[in-house]
Amino acid sequence: MKAVEIDGKKLFVEFQRNPLRICPSKTLFVRNLSLRTSEASLLRTFEGHGALSAMISKNSNGDPLGYGFVQFDSIKAAESARNAMKDVEIDGKILYIDFMRNRKHPLPGKSPGKETVTVTR
């Protein structure tokens, strides 16, 4: 590995595969939500792309955490929505949208200390 010197310090850059690579799924992870955004408005934003349900994660006091999830009936529908909704703005904030990661607690609301509500149509 070759070092590059910047301002007298050696910098090493190493490329490797991302072990947390996100694979497409039926659920989109949406972050940078305004604290004013409701689950109903999040669902309305994605309904035109086939969203089935939406939820916003909340702490134990019921305060929103600024992120949520949108469920679709297929991976294809979720992929289409993800691609179409880049740079969408809700309540004055541009959203970051990606596929939900499969973790130890893959379902929203299953993490200890967090309370969630799901809105379905």
Quick structural summary:
By secondary structure, this protein is of the alpha+beta class. Helices cover 16% and strands 38% of the residues.
Question: Helices, strands, pairings?
Answer:
Blueprint: E1 3-6, E2 9-12, E3 27-31, H1 39-47, E4 51-59, E5 64-72, H2 75-84, E6 89-90, E7 93-94, E8 96-99, E9 114-120
Antiparallel strand pairs: 1-2, 3-5, 3-8, 4-5, 4-9, 6-7
Notable traits:
9 strands, 121 residues, 2 helices, 16% helix, two-stranded antiparallel ribbon, extended, alpha+beta, single chain
Structure report:
The chain has 121 residues and is α+β, with helices and mostly antiparallel strands. The chain has a 5-stranded antiparallel beta sheet.
What's the number of helices?
2
- Backbone structural class: alpha+beta
Strand content: 35-45%
- N- to C-terminal distance: 54 Å
Along the chain, the helix and strand elements come as EEEHEEHEEEE
**Mean pLDDT metric:** 80
Binned, the helix content reads 10-25%
Cα-atom Rg, whole angstroms? Answer: 18 Å
